[in-house]
Design brief:
Blueprint: E1 14-20, H1 27-35, E2 43-49, H2 55-65, E3 69-74, H3 84-101, E4 107-111, E5 115-117, H4 121-131, E6 135-146, E7 149-152, E8 164-168, H5 169-174, H6 184-194, E9 198-202, E10 208-211, H7 221-235, H8 239-247, H9 255-271, H10 279-302
Parallel strand pairs: 1-2, 1-4, 2-3, 6-9, 6-10
Antiparallel strand pairs: 4-8, 5-10, 6-7, 6-8
Length: about 300
């Protein structure tokens, strides 16, 4: 497949942000898949959050070899943190891209260190975005690779994956990049909808991302559930929605993850832990998202939905 560089005849500029912590086993495949993209980014910033496994050496080597690859090294959080620290790492990459290119980037992409992409992944998403000015956030389908076997991650079609997502540049700059705090992906999508934009999980495309572990896979299933439940509490989900999601989870999560999910939400609910301060986002999850999920689940149960 012919690689199309960013030129005057191909003016769409993409800045990719990759947060990395101890991904030495996955980085070579990620780098190879990005170099092989049919449309390459204008810039790729890799933010190393204090890796100790040799990831730093791989990042330095690729950034010295390719002039569109840049890197930042942070001191790192001693413990893996998929919440607030993850958002801070992404924000570091965003600020770097914004300082260098300001408004010249048409799109940003969040690409996790344990991903790899099919050669036309980026190009296919850009084509969809360019054709729909109301589309703000999109990802292709996600396949999980476990012990050499792959399965497609089930998601609602308005829930793009956070680890291989392309985001409209004007929208991202309007919200000052990634929101700091837990569940950065959910809040970004909420802000997109509040601004009249759409979010799409384009699993029907012929291009996809493959992940070496399920989302949040550095945690065990119960811990993953607790983390998801806590995040859903933080953004302002209604308790009824939590019960509905636990009963009708589209991802088919195992029992221990669902138990952790309920515990994560209701332990915070009973303690009255502070929620997100943004009143518009909080109201969206409490009211609008409740209606969306309730209508979707009801339509599936009654057989009226697709």
């Amino acid at each position: 497949m012919t690689v199309t560089p960013m030129t005057e005849t191909n003016p769409v500029g993409v800045g990719i942000i990759t947060p990395v912590k101890d991904e030495v086993e996955n980085l070579p495949a990620l780098i190879g898949s990005l170099v092989a993209q049919s449309v390459q980014p204008q810039a790729w910033i890799i933010v190393d959050d204090g890796s100790t496994d040799g990831s730093s050496e791989i990042i330095r080597a690729v950034s010295s070899r390719l002039d569109w690859v840049h890197s930042i090294s942070l001191d790192g959080n001693p413990e893996y943190d998929i919440g607030t620290n993850y958002a801070k790492v992404i924000a570091t990459g965003y600020r770097y891209l914004y300082r260098r290119w300001r408004d010249d980037l048409d799109y940003y992409m969040i690409l996790d260190g344990d991903m790899r992409l099919t050669p036309g992944y980026l190009e296919s998403l850009l084509e969809v975005l360019e054709a729909d000015e109301d589309l703000f956030v999109i990802s292709g389908g996600l396949r999980i690779d476990l012990d050499g076997e792959q399965y497609q991650e089930k998601r609602f079609d308005d829930q793009p994956i956070g680890g291989a997502t392309v985001i409209d540049g004007a929208f991202y700059r309007a919200i000052s990049g990634p929101p700091l705090g837990p569940c950065v992906d959910s809040i970004t999508k909420a802000k997109a909808r509040l601004m009249g934009g759409k979010c799409v999980y384009a699993a029907d495309l012929d291009e996809w991302a493959t992940q070496s572990r399920p989302t949040g896979g550095k945690e065990n299933r119960f811990e993953r559930g607790v983390s998801n439940g806590s995040d859903n509490y933080y953004v302002g989900y209604h308790p009824v929605v939590i019960l509905l999601k636990a009963l009708h989870n589209p991802t088919g999560s195992p029992l221990q993850q669902s138990v952790g999910y309920l515990y994560g939400y209701f332990s915070n609910f009973l303690r009255r832990t502070p929620r997100i301060e943004d009143p518009d986002v909080r109201a969206y999850f409490w009211r609008d998202r409740t209606h969306e999920i309730f209508d979707r689940i009801t339509s599936k149960v009654t057989g009226d939905g697709s």
